[in-house]
Specification:
The chain is an alpha+beta fold. Helix content is 41%, strand content 22%. Helix 1 runs antiparallel to helix 2 and helix 2 packs across helix 4.
């Protein structure tokens, strides 16, 4: 499986500086994440809604295989609107996860 590594300085904040390793996830894992956050109409079976933020956050979380231990990024932190991660860092993580998956 493909991997991508990134070393961050303190530009996103000192708590996010360090070495991160992302790895491609399996097709089954990706499908499970999408299924979990997609709602279907009970009669027609057509998609009635998807939580794209949750799908992206779980994809990042599943891809993130190594990170600095001093202040780890959790799924809750990725999804938080109050104590989350900076927008630019989220965008960077999204780009990496999307490239791999």
């Amino acid at each position: 499986m493909r991997k991508e590594e990134v070393d961050l300085d303190s530009r996103f904040g000192e708590q996010f500086a360090g070495h991160y390793v992302f790895q491609e996830i399996t097709w089954a894992k990706r499908s499970h994440i999408i299924q979990k956050h997609t709602k279907y109409h009970p009669i027609t079976g057509q998609v009635s809604g998807s939580d794209f933020v949750a799908i992206q956050a779980e994809t990042i979380w599943a891809s993130l295989k190594q990170q600095p231990e001093n202040k780890p990024i959790t799924l809750e932190k990725l999804l938080s609107e109050d104590e989350g991660i900076p927008i630019d860092l989220g965008e960077l993580f999204s780009k990496i996860a999307n490239r791999l998956n």
